[in-house]
Amino acid sequence: MCPSSDYPDDFRKCVEFHGHMCPGLAIGYSAVKAAESLMKTTASEDEELVCLVENNSCAVDAVQVLLGCTFGKGNLIFRDWGKQVFTFYERRSGRAVRASLRNSSPNREAQHELRKKIDSGTATEEDKKRFTKLREDYTKSLVSEPESYFEVKEIKIDAPPLAQIADTAPCAICGEQTMVSRMVDRAGSMICKDCAK
Ligand SMILES: [Zn+2]
Ligand SMILES: [Zn+2]
After folding, report:
1. Fewer CB atoms < 10 Å away: N or C end of the chain?
2. Strand 76-78 relative to strand 49-53: parallel, antiparallel, unpaired?
3. pLDDT tens digits, residue range 47-79?
4. CA 74–ligand 2 middle distance (angstroms)
5. Rounded to the nearest 10 degrees, how much is the dihedral formed by the CA atoms of 37, 39, 40, 41?
6. Distance 138 CA to ligand 1 centre (A)
7. pLDDT digits (tens, 9 = 90+) for 125-137
8. Ligand with an atom nearest the CA of residue 196
9. How far is the CA of 19 from the centre of ligand 2 (A)?
10. What is the distance in A from the centroid of ligand 1 to the CA of 27?
C-alpha cells in the first residue's frame, strides 16, 4: 500500500522499506519523532547513534530507515521484552533518551472487535472497510502527534558495547566459517551450533 501525499516524505520512505503501511510502523516513526524533542536524532553513518529496541515488530523498521541504526552495523540492539520502548543513545555525549508508548489507539476496542469478526470470517464488507479506516486513522494520528502517544525522558545508561570484529574458524564438521565465540566444544573439536544440534 502506497501512502498518500498527506503523509510526510520520511514516513513514506519507511513504508517503502517496510513493504506496507501499518500502525506498527507508525509507532516506530512516532517514537523517533517524540525523542527529537530531547535529542537531535539524525541518521547515523557509523555507530554514533545506538538504538535499543524492546520488541522486534514493524516499528523497528522505521527506526532503521530514519536513524540508520541497523542490525548489520551493530547499532541496533534488540532486547526481547515485548514493549514498545525505544532508547536512543548518543555515543559522543553519552546522553540517552527513552521513548515509551503510553497510549494506544483511541478506537482500540472497536478495532479489536472488528479484527475478531474478520478472523472468524463473519465480517461484512462494511466491517472490513471500517477496520481499514480505523487503522488508517490511528496511523495518521501516530505520525502527526507523537507527543500524545509517547512519554520521553532522559535517562542514564551504560554505553552499549561497540560492534566487535569477530574471529572466525571453520567448523570441524561442516567446514563453514563460524564466529569462534559462537562455537561449541565437542570432545575437543570446535563445531557450529547448527552441527551441534
Ligand atoms: Zn507492518
Ligand atoms: Zn558446522
Report:
1. C
2. parallel
3. 789 999 999 999 999 999 999 999 888 899 999
4. 24
5. -100
6. 13
7. 999 999 999 999 9
8. 2
9. 34
10. 10
Enumerate residues 6+ apart whose C-beta is below 8 A from 117: 123, 127
Q: Please, what is the average pLDDT of the chain?
A: 93
Asked if 77 and 49 count as a contact pair (C-beta separation under 8 A), the reply is no
Distance 55 CA to ligand 2 centre (A): 30
User: What fold, for 164-197?
Assistant: Wheat Germ Agglutinin (Isolectin 2); domain 1 (3.30.60)
| Grid cell of 128 as nine digits | 472490513
Q: Which fold has domain 9-155?
A: 60s Ribosomal Protein L30; Chain: A; (3.30.1330)
Residues bordering ligand 2, an ion, CB closer than 5 Å: 171, 173-174, 192, 195
Where are the extended beta strands (E) located within 23-84?
Answer: 49-53, 76-78
Q: Where are the beta strands (DSSP E) in 81-188?
A: 85-90, 95-101, 150-155, 168-170, 177-179, 184-186
Contact between 157 and 91 (Cβ < 8 Å): no
CA of residue 93 to ligand 2 center, whole Å: 42
Q: How far apart (Å, rounded) are the C-alpha atoms in residues 193 and 84?
A: 31
Q: In what order do the strands lie in the sheet with 49-53?
A: 76-78, 49-53, 85-90, 95-101, 150-155
The residue with cell 547448527 is 194
